[in-house]
Amino acid sequence: MCYVGTMQRSVGDEQESIFDLVVEHIEGGLSRLRLVDPRAEARMEASLRSYGQLCPAVVALTPEGSYEMVDGFKRLRAARRIGLSKIKVMVLESGSRGRKAAIVELNRTGAPLRPLEEALVVQSLYREDRLQQSEIATLLGRHKSWVSRRIQIVEALCEEVIEHLRLGLVCISLGRELVRLPRGNQASALSTVLKYKFTTREARRLISMWLEQPRWEQEALLRFPEPILSDRCPPPPKGQLFTGTYAFVEGRLLQMRRLALAVTERAGMPAVRTWTAEQKGRLRSIVDEIQISLKQFADGMEP
């Protein structure tokens, strides 16, 4: 069993250990080691509004004389959102390392920490507090291999992805997909996922395609993931199944639109600037022919 400090307890006529603490006097620096879950945040806010605070948060008194939140970040944020001036707390008597270890210890039961949250705590102890992996294992009551795996989780992700996960801007399942990429490419892939509002399934497909592409095609895929976007074309309205010439023309025009968007995205790539005047002239003539053909088609539909 790990040691994380002691809680103040009341016995008989001794001073009560649970007391009201002004919300603005609580520091939330350790929240960087937890992930925000918007749905859980909403449930906590609804619970506070309906039933009040059901259990105290845990804080620690720092050497500077301030209170630092250790467990109860959702309660603290919800209290601030609904305008509560105080919340009930218990004080943990522990140093900096013990406070971080308590984040893991106090969440062993009930709703345990996610692996990435455990990894953030472990990495902080390893990088900031300069503890050896064997020391962290002893502190947390875990095996050294568990500590090593947690460090690998967080250090395989780039800081931008971690920050989005920490703030609840993307789901943890997306983080599990992005970790498949090299750290240097994760931010670009995340940008593509956010730009096109990809689902986790679409993000998984994007990353799998990126891993299979030759290196010189990977950037183009992230700039415009045409194969995934093309599958988003909505089916015709229910009861309105087009056939014959109309279906053929509509299908080809939709395909042309997707290809045109893909070509437009490619036009901004650095390689385009290396093309010769002859190459650019040939492409312009092709574009002109396409424009003439489409104009003739559009004119032909006029009444």
Structure, explained:
The protein is α/β, with parallel strands linked by helices and 303 residues long. The protein is built from 14 helices and six strands. It has helices at 38-51, 73-82, 96-105, 115-128, 133-140, 144-155, 159-166, 172-178, 183-195, 200-212, 215-223, 226-230, 244-267, 277-300, and strands spanning 6-7, 19-22, 26-27, 57-61, 67-71, 86-93. A hairpin with a 5-residue loop joins β4 and β5 (67-71). It is elongated and about 85 Å long. Residues 9-16 have low confidence and may be disordered.
Essential attributes:
6 strands; Conserved hypothetical protein from pyrococcus furiosus pfu- 392566-001, ParB domain; alpha/beta; 14 helices; 303 residues; single chain
Structural domain tally: 3
CATH superfamily grouping of the largest domain: Conserved hypothetical protein from pyrococcus furiosus pfu- 392566-001, ParB domain
- Give the number of DSSP strands: 6
Could you say which overall geometry the principal axes of the C-alpha atoms support? elongated
- The string of secondary-structure elements, in order, is EEEHEEHEHHHHHHHHHHHH
Task: Give the radius of gyration.
Answer: 28 Å
Rounded mean pLDDT is 88
Q: What fraction of the residues are assigned to beta strands by DSSP?
A: 5-15%
Question: In CATH's first tier, which class of the largest domain applies?
Answer: Alpha Beta
**What class do helices, strands and sheet pairing give?**
alpha/beta
Q: Which CATH architecture of the largest domain would you pick?
A: Alpha-Beta Complex
Helix content: 55-70%
In whole angstroms, the N-to-C terminal distance is: 83 Å
CATH fold-level label of the largest domain: Conserved hypothetical protein from pyrococcus furiosus pfu- 392566-001, ParB domain
Characterize the largest beta sheet: strand count, sense, and whether it forms a barrel.
6 strands, mixed
Stretches where pLDDT is under 50 for at least 5 consecutive residues are 9-16
Give the quaternary arrangement of the chains: single chain
